[in-house]
Amino acid sequence: MGTVTASTDVNVPIRTAYNQWTQFESFPQFMEGVERVDQLDSTRTHWKVHFGPVEREFDATIVEQHPEERIAWRSDSGPEHAGVVTFHRIDDTTTRVITQMDIDPEGFVENVGDKLGVLDRRVKGDLKRFKQFIEERGHETGAWPGDVPRAGV
Q1: What topology does CATH give the domain 2-23+62-137?
Q2: Is the pTM of this model over 0.90?
Q3: N or C: which end of the chain has fewer CB within 10 A?
């Protein structure tokens, strides 16, 4: 399993950055290879993605979410992966967004891509596109301020 970590500073308040990240259905607008994300309920999403010629669909569950702080998830089906995105207030108008993903590539194409650093570059590119996406708008397209406590806490 490989780990990908990336960060970017976005020139919007923490509330704006966090609220936009909770709009999972907007991910195809800035995430490469993400064709569709459907929000099934407050903690479950369904994804349709492609990596080169390979298409995959999978479900993921938000396992922890705290407004303006963090969102953590794990896959329920498809390639095994999990991750967390955290939001850090730099000042009133700047937020640092940090992602960490643990990915177990499935199949030949994904394994080759992982070995060549394609997954790492894709995640870093997604964060750059998120920065552009939210800064151009200056406001979020929606918000979900709910809190999902970590299981067992």
Answers
A1: Alpha-D-Glucose-1,6-Bisphosphate; Chain A, domain 4 (3.30.530)
A2: no
A3: C
